[in-house]
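[Discussion] Sanity-checking designs against the backbone

I'm trying to build intuition for which residues belong where. Below is a structure token string of 207 positions. I'd appreciate it if someone posts a full sequence so I can compare it with mine line by line.
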């Protein structure tokens, strides 16, 4: 009986010694586990910043830009050395210093001259679209005697899921207009390409 008592005392003593090694009041997660479960705080905020950076670089001519055009129903892409006498669509392709296409702008010809539209695809460094912008400038909107300007920007995540949208409708002075007061006659359908390769193939470009 005494032997059993001594044995229990020894087991309890060893348990007291070992327990601090296995119990932690503030366990540290592994780096790999932390990396997998920490979500991006605001995807839309990042995409807007990326959009502004590329747009500003294009406007300030910090990107390498080249203009091309098509004539009639032909899909042949011609390099624009001077303004063409005839064209159906003008394309402006903007690249960074590593020759990555970051922005492709498309502007179809308006025979009436009552409207002009710019379709812009914005791509990340992997060639995936993250923003699409449509800028429409037009007359005959009813809500304004002069020109009306509609700007739509849509944002996409890496899986081509739309995560945000902005809309602005203003007059020639930048004053906001109400969409319900206006007639939007030039809301043409236009495809949005999910990656750079698909768009360049569509416009018959191997750039």
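Best answer:
Here's mine. Compare freely.
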């Amino acid at each position: 009986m005494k032997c059993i008592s001594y044995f229990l005392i020894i087991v309890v003593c060893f348990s007291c010694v070992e327990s601090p090694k296995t119990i932690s009041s503030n366990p540290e997660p592994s780096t790999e586990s932390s990396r997998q479960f920490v979500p991006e705080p605001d995807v839309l905020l990042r995409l807007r910043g990326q959009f502004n950076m590329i747009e500003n670089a294009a406007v300030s001519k910090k990107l390498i830009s080249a203009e091309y055009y098509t004539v009639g129903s032909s899909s042949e892409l011609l390099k624009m050395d001077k303004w063409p006498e005839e064209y159906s669509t003008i394309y402006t392709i903007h690249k960074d210093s590593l020759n990555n296409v970051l922005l492709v702008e498309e502007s179809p010809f308006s025979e009436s001259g009552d409207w002009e539209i710019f379709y812009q695809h914005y791509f990340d460094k992997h060639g995936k679209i993250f923003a699409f912008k449509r800028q429409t400038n037009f007359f005959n909107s009813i809500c304004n005697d002069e020109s009306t300007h509609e700007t739509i920007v849509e944002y996409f995540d890496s899986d081509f899921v739309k995560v945000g949208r902005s809309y602005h409708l203003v007059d020639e002075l930048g004053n906001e207009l109400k969409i319900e007061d206006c007639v939007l006659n030039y809301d043409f359908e236009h495809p949005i390409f999910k990656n750079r390769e698909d768009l360049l193939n569509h416009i018959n470009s191997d750039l």
